[in-house]
């Protein structure tokens, strides 16, 4: 797991990925994601479509939630979908590459990282084109480290307490 310097959380468990992995026999390494924040948008929406807040800069990836899941925060499991722009409300089946471990106001709020690869494709070229690189991992690490600071300010303005931090990366195997 990639760790980013900052607070350590040794006493917190992260069941979200374990729950996801427990369902691998049915979902395998693909999940259905509905896009809530298209790549390039500054509007962060809730799963119900209402506006949550405005981002300080355009989102560098597609962001949404995994259909028919429930995370520790009560919302569907969050998902980052790397690749080209997808419109708001788009539903697609994407390959899971790993999990970003995140805590929001003291509550586990992990995010699956997915790539735009077709589930029925075994073609080597499609795997190369739609694969995940160390540069993607570094970019996500930097983005979520900065985002955690911004989200902490949003939480404080809403009277929410608890730590908000990006913890690291866990690859899907």
Topology:
Layout lengths: L1 E2 L11 H8 L1 H4 L2 E8 L5 E3 L5 E4 L7 E5 L11 E5 L8 E14 L2 E2 L2 E5 L8 H6 L4 H24 L7 E7 L2
Parallel strand pairs: 6-9
Antiparallel strand pairs: 1-10, 2-5, 2-7, 3-4, 5-6, 7-8, 7-9, 7-10
End-to-end span in angstroms? 12 Å
Which CATH class applies here? Alpha Beta
Largest sheet: 5 strands, mixed, barrel
> What share of residues are in beta strands?
25-35%
Strand order of the largest sheet: 2-5-6-9-7
Can you tell me about this structure?
- The chain has helices at 15-22, 24-27, 124-129, 134-157, and strands at residues 2-3, 30-37, 43-45, 51-54, 62-66, 78-82, 91-104, 107-108, 111-115, 165-171.
- The protein has 173 residues and is α+β, with helices and mostly antiparallel strands.
- It has one domain: Inorganic pyrophosphatase (Inorganic Pyrophosphatase, Alpha-Beta Complex), CATH 3.90.80.10.
- The strands form two sheets. It has a five-stranded mixed β-barrel with strand order 2-5-6-9-7. Strands 3-4 form a two-stranded antiparallel sheet.
- A hairpin with a 5-residue loop joins strand 3 (43-45) and strand 4.
Which descriptors would you attach to this protein?
two-stranded antiparallel ribbon, 173 residues, single chain, 4 helices, 24% helix, metal-binding, Inorganic Pyrophosphatase, disordered N terminus, magnesium ion binding
């Amino acid at each position: 797991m990639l760790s980013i310097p900052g607070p350590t959380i040794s006493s917190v468990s992260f069941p979200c990925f374990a729950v996801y992995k427990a369902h691998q026999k049915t979902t395998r390494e693909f999940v259905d994601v509905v896009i809530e924040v298209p790549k390039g948008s500054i509007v962060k929406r809730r799963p119900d479509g209402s506006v949550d807040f405005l981002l300080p800069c355009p989102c560098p990836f597609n962001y949404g939630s995994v259909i028919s899941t429930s995370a520790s925060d009560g919302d569907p499991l969050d998902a980052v979908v790397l690749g080209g722009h997808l419109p708001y409300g788009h539903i697609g089946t994407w390959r899971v590459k790993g999990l970003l471990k995140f805590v929001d106001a003291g509550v586990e709020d992990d995010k699956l990282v997915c790539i735009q690869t077709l589930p029925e494709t075994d073609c080597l070229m499609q795997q190369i084109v739609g694969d995940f690189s160390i540069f993607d991992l570094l970019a996500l690490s930097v983005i979520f480290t900065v985002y955690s600071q911004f989200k902490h300010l949003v939480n404080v303005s809403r009277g929410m307490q608890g730590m908000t931090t990006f913890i690291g990366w866990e690859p899907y195997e």
